[in-house]
Design brief:
By secondary structure, the protein is mainly β. Helices cover about 10% and strands about 40% of the residues. The protein is built from 3 helices and 15 strands. Strand 5 and strand 6 form a beta hairpin. The two termini are about 25 Å apart.
Amino acid sequence: MMKNKLFSALALLTLTGCSVGKYQYSSEAMNRVDMNFTGIPTILGIGTLGSSIPLTADYSLTAAHVARYSVQRVKAYHPYCDLAIIYHKNDLKSLPKFREGAIGEPVKMYGYSFISAMPVESSGVNLALTGIRNDWNKRPCVAMASNAGVVKGMSGGAVYNNDDTIGGVIVGFSTEIRQHKASPAPLKDVSLYIPYRDFKSWLNKSIT
């Protein structure tokens, strides 16, 4: 499904700003993801937070950099991608379904905003696959770049395909990704998520 070549340059998560693209308040996000505090919020509400995706009655899926400092215990870390499964009690009517997304396919992203602590969503299209390297993502981890908006706090949130299946987990954004030599220009201000194909086997082994 994902036959397009990876970008020759590696994507680096650039979090010097607070967000890229457009996003908006969404009551639907509350039905799809949970808020996860990292660190200790103060009485003024100042702290850090991330998002997580309910998996089963006992586990949720999130970004490893969220899980590392979350109040929930960690069940498993992905060996080379920024992903983790945490212990979390969930009231699920049905288990979520996952599917690999394709380049050019529309997606919706759900999470919580660090700025407002409110549930938010954004819409966009899958643009390209790219290698991704930083403290949390190592070879051979691959990310999908999208033009859907992302704000800090949405890390660990869900990326939904157009058939209401989950296509991946949000891990951050980049101000620029350089494409291979044949491409005319770099991609600017993209959101990045780990696609299901990268963690399918790990997820199945970790929750069974």
